Structure formats: structure tokens, C-alpha cells
Amino acid sequence: MFRPRFVPASNHAQLPQWKDTWTRVLPALTLWILSVILRYGYYGNCSMVLGPSSSRLMKASSVFVQQVQVRDENWKGALVYVFSEKPELSNKVNWNFSNYLIVGAYARKGYSLWLNKGSRIRIRWATQPSRLDKIELIIIKGEKKRETLLPEQTVPFGALFLNEPVTGKEADYNIEEDDKYSVGLINSNPRSIIVTFSLNVTSKVYDVTKASDMCSTLNGSCRLQLQFPLTQYVIVSTPDNGDIAGRYVELSFVARVVTYIAVL
């Protein structure tokens, strides 16, 4: 008796179907990967902490980036510059800040700044003599990989606060790398205290006299086109308006879509 046999389809017969499917999916997948890299990778959005008289440098390839957009949520007038050649970190700006800080029990309070290599910070803090030993100054470098800086020297001093004698300390720091720096005081006392806190900063900033274009966020977000196909340098800077808190600026790189289409 004849029994029919079922012969499995040849793998070779299925290959053209897989090739056709892969050919259709690959361009879309590649474009999606590139868009994700552009959105979240090297040329993604960058939320920056700056500070008075800050000057932060970034590098972008105009082959892949058509435009930079900068938005200052607080409308405090960040300035954006574009260069065809890397500018020099050759200028210095001095600024000061002084205030009373109320630091809660077992709490930390301070400020965040962007500082370039070669900058210097001098910090003074003072309070009642009986509580000074439980006040610690700390400077943390970086965001992802954090590192605590050590001062060059710490010097005690005496002063008057609300007509009462207080004692304080003074510390000097040299900045050896461009980065974000968080400056703050830690209170190990069991109650809140008032501390006189002052900063004296000598900030190294970039020379912007050779910028090819610039814009300001004083009246809202600003946009600058990047000249194709050169590598461009972008500097975001802030004026010294005495405001040390809340200097957050968002920078976005807008893709040059033609380049990514050509890649596909």
C-alpha cells in the first residue's frame, strides 16, 4: 500500500522570504537606532548647570548636526557662541557671592557651578564657636563619577555676626578639570544653624571675540545654524548677575536629516 510522505520545505526555499523581510526591516531599524543615538547619545539634549560667569565648551560635527538650540528656563540671559576653530581658554573673571545659610539638623545645603580648568575658589564660612566643629565644607566634582576635592589649605578666623563674636574657616581650591562642582556645608549639629557663607571665585573663561555667530536667551530660546561640513565649537556662557542659584540651561542638537538619509 502506498503511503504518501510529507517532505519538509527546503531551508533554501525559505531564505528569499527572510531576505526580503530583512531588506524591508533593516532601513527602518537603522533609522530608529540612529534617531535614538541622536536623541539620547552624544548629540542628544544636554541639561547644564552653570552659574555666574560660566563658560562651557562643546564640540559638534556639522555633518550630523544642523542646528543648536538653547533654552534658559529662567530667562536670565545665557549667551551662545559658535566657532569654526577651538577658542582659547585665556580670560579670567572674578565674582563674589555672600549670604546667610540656614542649614537644617544633619542636613546639607549649597550650590552647583560649572568651572573650567585653572579656576580658583576661596570659601569662607562662620558660625557660633560651639557649633563650628560640626560644620563641614565639602566640594564634589562631577555628576556620574563623583569625587571629593581637598583644599590647598584651611585657615581659621574670627569675626562678628549680629554683634556677637563668631569663628570661621577659610579654604582655597584649585580647579584642575572642566566639570560641575557642588559646593556645600554639612551640619552635624542636632539643630538648625545660621552660617555666614561667602564665595570668591576666579573663573577661567573662553575668549569669544572670534565667534562666527551668537545669540541670547534673554527673550526666550535661541537657535544657531552650524556651517556644513566643518567641525564646530559651541560655547554657552552666563553673565555675572549675582544669582548663584537656579542657572539651568538646556541645549539641544538638531539633526541634519539629509546625512542620515544618505547613510541609509
UniProtKB/TrEMBL annotation:
Pfam families referenced in this protein's UniProt entry, alphabetically: APD1-4_M, APD1-4_N
Top-level taxon in the UniProt lineage: Eukaryota
Keyword terms: Metal-binding, Zinc, Zinc-finger
GO terms, molecular function: ubiquitin protein ligase activity; zinc ion binding
Protein's GO biological process: protein ubiquitination
Residue span(s) of domain E3 ubiquitin-protein ligase APD1-4 N-terminal: 78-145
Domain E3 ubiquitin-protein ligase APD1-4 middle: start-end pairs: 171-263
Keyword Zinc: yes
Keyword Zinc: yes
PANTHER family (alphabetical): LIGASE, PUTATIVE-RELATED (PTHR46858:SF6), OS05G0521000 PROTEIN (PTHR46858)
Protein name in UniProt: Uncharacterized protein
